[in-house]
Amino acid sequence: MLTGGICGSDLPYYRGAMHQQMPNRGRGAAGIPGYPMHEVVGEVVVSRDPHVEVGSRVVGWASIFNGLAQYVVSHGRDLFAYDASFDPGEAIVLQPLACVLGAMNDLGDVTGAKVAVLGQGSIGLLFSHVAKQRGAGTVIGVDRVDRSDCSSDLGVDECVHSSIDGWVASLAPTDAPDIVIEAVGHQVGTFTRAVEAVAVGGRIYYFGIPDDEVYPLNMKSLLRKRLTLQSGWVLPAERRRLLGQANDYLIAHPKLAGSIVTHTFDFDEVPEAYAVAATPRAGQLKVTIRVDR
Questions:
Q1: Cis peptide leading into residue 36 (ω within 30°)
Q2: Cα 280–chain centre separation
Q3: HEC states along the chain?
Q4: What is the mean pLDDT of the chain?
Q5: Could you report the per-residue pLDDT of 186-214, keeping only the tens digit for each?
Q6: Which of 20, 40, 60, 71 could, after both became Cys, cross-link 78 (CB 3.0–4.6 A)?
């Protein structure tokens, strides 16, 4: 391991939630050394995958969320040898960027559309950047944390410092977005507000990780507004390809990683790093951990 990134989807498990796929041996948390972290950058020391050479530097997924360690075993399909011009602190952005690019590929054409991105943390701002680069007419970023210090540099035309509820309540029908990307996750309310906010005939992409298995959905609104609802996650078979797309995207936008990564901690500061990541605030986006070898 060289660098790890803390993802919003790691935080419920940091707080003690049970993971549905990982084997849980402890009370309220998985008994896996190195848990919970899946965004990783490292140097390959042993490989059984012909596409992942020993000595190469790779980015991707720690396959069982165990990236908080000096050595990690991952599936070769989950890794990509990134461009040598990136240092590990930049390359870590490729993993969340790959997830965003996969979602935007699914969403399809956004040319000229008014796109609202709910949540303007590192994932939400990556969505804003990619949407603008793919031709969105207007990108609206909504977050209860003031992101005005960085939004314009990342493709946001209108930075809304508000709760999602407050923004939806103040939204005139003529201002309704064509597309709403829910990049908050972990709660029911932001998803239901996306249905309320989007324009007639609009699209919703739900990206945030759900903590609840069942979400209520206003079917009358979905029906009468003729809405399209999409969602998804990056399948293992797609990961290397999307990491390659992310690599090309970051080469084309070399300042992006520096805008997204705002806080870096050493390995002996892991508890502090997670505490910071779990408390969003102005000026704070991606939190990473440097692993000395």
A1: yes
A2: 14
A3: CCEEECCHHHHHHHCCCCCCCCCCCCCCCCCCCCCCECEEEEECCCCCCCCCCCCCEEEEECCCCECCCCCCCCCHHHEEECCCCCCHHHHCCHHHHHHHHHHHHHHCCCCCCEEEEECCCHHHHHHHHHHHHCCCCEEEEEECCCCCCCCHHHCCCEEEECCHHHHHHHCCHHHCCCEEEECCCCCCHHHHHHHHHCCCCCEEEECCCCCCCCCCCCHHHHHHCCCEEEECCCCHHHHHHHHHHHHHHHHHCCCHHHHHEEEEEEHHHHHHHHHHHCCCCCCCCEEEEECCC
A4: 92
A5: 888 898 999 999 999 999 999 977 878 88
A6: 60
Q: What are phi and psi of 143, to 5 degrees?
A: -155, 145
In this structure, the dihedral spanned by the alpha carbons of residues 218, 220, 223 and 224, taken in order and rounded to 10 degrees, is: -130
**What's the token pair of residue 139?**
């990108």
CB-based contacts of 50, cutoff 8 Å, min separation 6: none
The answer to whether 3-95+235-290 and 96-231 have equal CATH topology is no
pTM > 0.70: yes
Could you tell me the residue ranges of all domains in the chain? 3-95+235-290, 96-231
Which CATH code of 1.10.1040.10, 3.40.50.720, 2.60.40.420, 3.10.580.10 fits the domain covering 96-231?
Answer: 3.40.50.720
- The class of domain 3-95+235-290 in CATH terms is alpha beta
pLDDT at 55 over 70: yes
Cα separation, 178 vs 203, whole angstroms: 6
- In Å, how far from its chain's centre is CA 221? 28
Who has greater pLDDT, 137 or 30?
A: 137
